[in-house]
Amino acid sequence: MTPFFQVLIFALKNALLIVAALFPIINPVGGAPIFLLVTQGASQETRHFLARRIALNGTLLLLGAMFIGSYVLDYFGISTGTVKVAGGLLVSAIGWKMLQSDDQIQDGPVDKSMDWSRKVAERRAFYPLTFPLTVGPGSIAVAVTLGANVYKGGSRPLGAPVSALIAIAVLAVSIYLCYRFADRLVKLLGETGTTVLLKLAAFVLLCIGIEILVGGIGEIYEGFKPR
């Protein structure tokens, strides 16, 4: 077998492992109804633009986390436990707010008080739509951990960073497709099904936030335990 095919097979195997680790955490399928809820009042054109921008922002976040995330945290002296605590609080707050909000999804710019101009949409595409609702602290922490094993100072084989790029591309495409066609998913579910799914998704988001928070507290506690 030629070196090229060896690198390719290695890259594909590792890409599958990375996707398997990150896809359940990012969960673009479950995030699609949340995307519609958060973008109430936006036109279909704006939602399509947001789907593209969120996929791009998510790609950049995951790439940064995998390739330079551990170095940035080390430079500022921030542990992954601290990142999880702060991110868990943020995700929990968003989940709680969504549980208390009106769960009716509107098509088109019904809410006149909500500004969904292109400039505002560009800003909201990152926060909160990309971070923390799509690529949150949990997925970033996992990406940082995976990145430490994928690439470090050029000591890994060429297939390792290639596998990371392939995996992140697959995740970005899945995010775009799920958000781009989120309205069709909601129509298939119907009004009652959508309401149930939205509330369940918001509750799961709240639970994920608490789980991230507890995990971060546990990591910090382990760091203070005597060796």
Shape: globular
Uncertain segments are 106-113
- When the domains are counted, the total is 1
Can you write the helix and strand succession as a string?
HHHHHHHHH
**How much strand content do the residues show?**
under 5%
Structural class: mainly alpha
Distance between the termini: 47 Å
Number of helical stretches of at least 4 residues: 9
Q: What is the CA-atom radius of gyration, in angstroms?
A: 19 Å
Sheet with the most strands, sense and barrel status? none
- Summed over residues and divided by their number, the pLDDT gives a mean of 80
Number of strands: 0
Helix content: over 70%
Can you summarize this structure?
The protein is mainly alpha-helical and 227 residues long. It has helices at 3-26, 28-38, 44-67, 69-76, 80-100, 118-130, 137-150, 159-180, 182-224.
Structure notes:
- This protein has 227 residues and is mainly α.
- The protein has one domain (3-224).
- The chain is 79% helix and 0% strand.
- The protein is built from nine helices and no strands.
- The protein has helices at 3-26, 28-38, 44-67, 69-76, 80-100, 118-130, 137-150, 159-180, 182-224.
- Helix 2 (28-38) packs across helix 8 (159-180).
- The longest helix has 43 residues, at 182-224.
Describe the SSE topology.
Layout: H1 3-26, H2 28-38, H3 44-67, H4 69-76, H5 80-100, H6 118-130, H7 137-150, H8 159-180, H9 182-224
Helix pairs in contact: 1-7, 1-8, 2-8, 2-9, 3-6, 3-7, 3-8, 5-9
Brief descriptors of the model:
227 residues; mainly alpha; 9 helices
